[in-house]
Write a structure and sequence with these properties.
This protein is an alpha+beta fold. The chain has 3 helices and 2 strands, in the order αβαβα. 39% of the residues lie in helices and 10% in strands.
């Protein structure tokens, strides 16, 4: 699916961007987290080179890591960044 969406973007037929959201990062062992994230990021880039850098989120054990980044990305992508304040709490 990611590869298909990337191909549509590169064909010029659509005007949107892709950004992967890596969820549940807090459920991966801290010893394996860096390796797991690098592997996922590599797979995303191989399948969708036009994809924006992924946002990593975690909410069960880390008090909402990445949630504000997701909100900010959506606001920016929708062109609403001017005059909009991103809430600083989750």
């Amino acid at each position: 699916m990611l590869k298909h969406l990337d191909e549509r973007i590169r064909s010029g037929g659509v005007r949107w961007t892709l950004q992967a959201i890596i969820t549940k990062a807090d459920l991966v062992s801290p010893l394996n987290l860096t390796t797991a994230l690098e592997s996922i990021k590599r797979a995303i880039f191989e399948n969708a080179p036009t994809c924006l850098p992924p946002i990593v989120t975690a909410s069960q054990k880390s008090n909402g890591l990445g949630v504000i980044d997701v909100r900010r990305s959506i606001v920016e992508a929708c062109g609403l960044a001017r005059g909009y304040t991103i809430p600083i709490t989750v």
